[in-house]
Amino acid sequence: MLVVTDETVAELRTKLTGKFKRSEDEAPAVIRRLSANAEHVRSPGGSGWVPDDPDHDKFIDAALSGNAG
Question: Mind listing the pLDDT tens digit for each residue in 18-34?
Answer without folding.
Answer: 999 999 999 999 999 99
